[in-house]
Design goal:
The structure holds two protein chains of two kinds.
Chain A (H helix, E strand, L loop, with lengths): L1 H30 L1 H18 L1 H4 L31 H37 L1 H15 L3 H12 L3 H28 L2 H8 L4 H9 L4 H24 L11 H5 L2 H4 L6 H28 L7
Helix pairs in contact in A: 1-2, 2-4, 2-13, 4-5, 4-7, 4-10, 4-13, 5-7, 6-7, 7-10, 8-9, 10-13
Chain B lengths: L1 H28 L4 H9 L5 H11 L5 H13 L13 H36 L4 H15 L2 H16 L14 H35 L2 H8 L4 H23 L1 H14 L5 H10 L3 H29 L7
Classes of the chains: A mainly alpha, B mainly alpha.
């Protein structure tokens, strides 16, 4: 009986939570239609990535030498490439790579940066100074150059690309997190936590980090578009995700230009996929930023 | 002013030293060096002695700190060492490609300014009109469209509609300005469009803000021509943040150059960089990173100076 009651209470609570989330989402969509449009594109992408093996008409790696460089038709909606692989299936599977690399890199970069920024602000003094100098150092590399250096060190491949994109995000995230944490450090509730004898780790992770959530989320979404774009660029240069893996940037390198005259669809569709997804994340990110904090601006 | 410049220049030295140390450390900590890659690529069996000999020739057998000191010592004398891959001096490899990349960068910046300032100003003057929406969409799209894809699309249009391919060999401006410009304008457009995106938005919001200032109302009230109000009073003040943004977005320019040179098959610094990375040509990568970081830091320094010069309210610290 008691168990049933708690179960009922839990489902009731989660239902109410869901309801509240819907209301928040609805309000966001009404006020910021552009952001909502971005969110819809992102959801479609997520669905395509999750259901890639169900919805794609062909295997992304299946070569068919009888059907090379075919124009878009009923059998191959977006045509085939120089190995007879179906472009539509490869674009759909490519969304997996783009989203996986994009999410992992931005999440890791933004989180590590936030932890470093908040910790640096919390301790202040010499620690802060040293950490800041180091972050400044990382910031004096142009974004893509730092990513390329990491690739030069680690080599290509999916995991290495995630690391390569993550590294240049860290100092940018740390900068923003630190500036919001600096004012936080002086607030009474942090003093109270210190007076209660909590350890540094607990204060940083349980008291300070949750309070920089707004800038953190804004940064995360701002990074997502950049990360997808950077992954595409690296893969295009042959320094990102390695062949057989279907990736949009990779689909554009080499053969796409070589066969541009005979098979322009090979070059057109992956590029549209990249642009559309980055566009969606940017729209959504901008609206989220305006909704959460109109004063905050992240490049 | 003089003291401020000197101060800033002196501050650049430790930053550059840090950049050099960081890149050097990163590139040397991990195994898998160029000598082994060279032999693996040639397919022949390499005796251990030969590998050792080659390593000694490249100076890879010395302790790390010694290699670093040698490298830094060379840079101070403007000697960047030799490429581990081709064996030629790095300064030579860079010098023969610098003209192309520099020209492309300048042209792309020009494209960005010529796109962003008029478009942003127009959008601000006709706020919330269809023109404004078009400009905003144009600039958001610029952030999303990868410059290498735009480059590919430009080539595609030329091949399909004009049966014309951008020439494969670079013609210097001094040899034939016409051939040079027709070759470089397309990659410059591909890079410049993306570079202009943030600047367009910045111009728009800056002009909007300035137009609300009291001195604009005063200028209008005293019966000045709208054209004069706009150019002398509004634009002059709105350009400050635009210049800052162009400096900050310089990283985009570098990224754009790296990928676009690949698309248009231009043998510039960006292409050299990508090749050096795939060949694990450490000395080359180190020097190129140092070079780009130096240019990056220097551009930001110039932007600060320009801002201070344009806006007397900014004080030198």
């Amino acid at each position: 009986m008691a168990q049933e009651n708690t179960l009922a209470a839990v489902t009731h609570r989660s239902k109410r939570r869901l309801y509240r989330a819907w209301i928040l989402a609805w309000r966001f969509a009404r006020r910021r239609p552009l952001g909502a449009a971005g969110a819809v594109i992102i959801l479609v992408m997520l669905a395509a990535a999750a259901l890639a093996n169900v919805i794609s008409p062909y295997e992304p790696l299946a070569t068919d030498y009888g059907a090379m460089l075919q124009a878009p038709s009923a059998a191959h909606w977006l045509g085939t490439d120089s190995f007879g692989r179906d472009v539509l299936s490869r674009v759909i599977y490519g969304s997996r790579t783009a989203l996986f690399v994009g999410f992992c890199a931005s999440f890791l970069g933004a989180t590590l940066g936030a932890v470093i920024g908040v910790t640096s602000a919390y301790f202040g003094g010499k620690t802060d100074l040293i950490v800041q100098r180091f972050m400044d150092l990382l910031l004096s590399f142009p974004l893509i150059v730092l990513a390329l250096v990491v690739v030069a060190v680690l080599g290509t491949g999916t995991i290495n690309v995630i690391l390569a994109i993550m590294v240049p995000m860290i100092p940018r995230s740390a900068l923003v997190a630190r500036s919001s944490a600096l004012s936080l450090r002086e607030t009474p509730f942090i003093d109270a936590a210190r007076a209660l004898g909590f350890g540094h780790r607990r204060i940083i992770f349980r008291h300070m980090l949750p309070n920089v959530m707004a800038p953190y989320l804004i940064m995360l979404t701002a990074f997502l578009g950049q990360a997808i774009l950077l992954e595409a660029s690296l893969s295009f240069l042959g320094l990102g995700v390695a062949e057989p893996v279907p990736a949009w940037g990779l689909m554009l390198s080499g053969a796409a230009v070589e066969f541009a005259e005979r098979a322009p669809w090979m070059a057109i569709f992956p590029g549209i996929a990249i642009s559309l997804s980055v566009f969606a994340f940017n729209l959504f990110g901008d609206s989220l930023r305006d909704a959460l904090d109109p004063k905050l601006r992240v490049g | 002013m003089g003291r401020y410049i000197l101060h800033r220049v002196l501050l650049m030295i430790p930053t550059l030293f840090g950049v050099a140390a960081l890149v050097f450390l990163l590139l040397r900590v991990l195994p898998g060096d160029i000598v082994e890659l060279k032999y693996a690529g040639s397919g022949t069996f390499a005796p251990k002695q030969a590998i050792e000999r080659e390593k000694a020739q490249l100076g890879l057998d010395k302790p790390l700190w010694r290699q670093f000191v040698d490298w830094i010592g060379g840079i101070v004398r403007l000697d960047f060492g030799t490429s581990m891959w081709t064996g030629r001096p790095i300064s030579h490899e860079v010098a023969i490609r610098l003209e192309l990349s520099l020209e492309l960068a300048l042209m792309a910046t020009l494209v960005a300014v010529l796109l962003s300032v008029p478009l942003g100003t127009l959008a601000a003057l006709r706020q919330d009109s269809w023109l404004d929406y078009f400009v905003r969409l144009f600039s958001i799209a610029g952030l999303a469209i990868p410059s290498f894809w735009l480059g590919i699309m430009i080539i595609l249009v030329f091949i399909i509609f004009f049966h014309w391919l951008p020439p494969l060999t670079f013609t210097s401006f001094w040899v034939s300005p016409r051939a040079n410009l027709t070759q470089l304008i397309w990659p410059a457009l591909a890079v410049g469009y993306r570079y202009s995106a943030v600047a367009t938005r910045m111009t728009r919001s800056a002009v909007l803000e300035v137009l609300r200032e009291d001195y604009i109302r005063t200028a209008r009230a005293k019966g000045l021509w709208e054209k004069v109000v706009l150019t002398r009073h509004a634009l002059k003040n709105a350009l400050l943040p635009v210049i800052t943004v162009l400096g900050l977005e310089f990283a985009f320019l570098v990224g754009g150059l790296v990928v676009t040179e690949q698309v248009f098959n231009l043998n510039g610094i960006g292409k050299l960089f990508v090749e050096a990375i795939s060949q694990r040509d450490y000395t080359m990568v180190q020097s190129l990173v140092l070079l780009t970081s130096f240019v990056f830091i220097f551009v930001n320094f110039l932007v600060d100076l320009l801002n201070a010069w344009l806006d007397p309210r900014i004080r030198y610290q």
